[in-house]
Amino acid sequence: MDMYSTVTVESEPYPFEFVPKQCALLIIDMQRDFLEPDGFGAMLGNDVTQLRRTIEPNQKLLKAWRAAGLQVIHTREGHRPDLSDLPLTKKVRGRNKTSIGDVGPMGRILVRGEPGHDIIPELYPLSDEPIIDKPGKGAFYATDLHAILQNRNITKLIVTSVTTEVCVNTTVREANDRGYDCLVLSDCVGSYFPQFQVAALDMIKAQGGIFGWVSQSDKVLTVLELCLHYLLNIHSKKSDYFRISIVCI
Ligand code: TIU
Fold first, then answer.
1. Residues with catalytic annotation?
2. What is the pLDDT of residues 98-121, one digit of tens each?
3. Shortest-distance atom of ligand 1 to CA 161
4. Does residue 29's CB lie within 6 angstroms of at least one atom of ligand 1?
5. I want to staple 40 with a disulfide (CB 3.0 to 4.6 A). Which of 33, 97, 180, 183 is the partner?
6. Each residue of 59-111: pLDDT tens digit?
7. Is-cis flag, bond preceding 13, omega within 30?
């Protein structure tokens, strides 16, 4: 078992199989405006603690995924500063006094380059991890995500983050129509609304996994640890062999 072999994660509705090197961790919209207590989400009256509980499990998973040398991709929802990619319908929906593009608690709301639009420091991308800037809810709409995944030979996705019924669900549905298998980790995705968290996960795994699989991060961590132990064993066996060869000479 190594990063190029098929591994199996206990999941619903049945085990999820993937080759680690052909699977990307897709972290959706862990942005300050959605998660921080003084962000746009909180300003609208949402309970950000429902999202913040996902930070720690995502950190653990991200650390292990990076340590295993696997691919990580981050997304951010937001718009050009001139708002030319913002549909009027999205701008006016909700009839809020302050909306996308206006000055909010952390700069202009959901505008690229503004502090609130950026990813929270706890999960900040490394310089070699692609960030997909998306104008919509789905990460495939009007982005180069599909091209990046194809160029990197990625066939499966582990999808995490926020919010479960909005950008996570939309992205998983878009991924399905493009031929990707998706595993969603319930402790790593969050919704402002507990009832939507349950329903959104149920929708993914219903009907034999109509949109994908659902599991928890500890199940993925266990599989990664097994792969790493296997690789460490191989390396230590190789170095034993090397030492023996030197002694014989
Ligand atoms: N990232 C994402 O889900 N965007 C949202 O607007 N989500 C809400 O739940 N509002």
1. 29, 134, 167
2. 999 999 999 999 999 999 999 999
3. 1
4. yes
5. 33
6. 999 999 999 999 999 999 999 999 999 999 999 999 999 999 999 999 999 99
7. yes
Taking the CA atoms of 109, 113, 116 and 118 in sequence, report the sign of the dihedral they define: positive
More confident residue, 170 or 240: 170
The CA 113 to ligand 1 mean position distance, Å, reads 18
Proportion of the chain above pLDDT 90, given as a percent: 89
CB of 33 sitting under 6 A from ligand 1: no
Classify 107 in phi/psi space as left (phi over 0), alpha (psi -120 to 50) or beta.
left
* Single-letter code of the amino acid located at 158: I
**Token pair of 57 as six digits:** 């499990």
- Cα–Cα distances in angstroms (integers) from residue 193 to residues 50, 66, 126, 171, 173, in the given order: 8, 31, 31, 19, 20
Dist. CA 77 → ligand 1 center (Å): 8
Give, for ligand 1, the residue of 31, 118, 143, 166 to mutate: max count of ligand atoms closer than 8 Å to Cβ: 166
171 lines ligand 1 (CB under 6 A): no
Look up residue 188 and give its DSSP letter. E
Q: Return the exposure string of 201-218: e unless at least 16 CB atoms fall within 10 Å of the residue's CB, then b.
A: bebbbeeebebbbbbebe
183-195 confidence digits (pLDDT tens): 999 999 999 999 9
Cα separation, 201 vs 213, in Å, equals 9
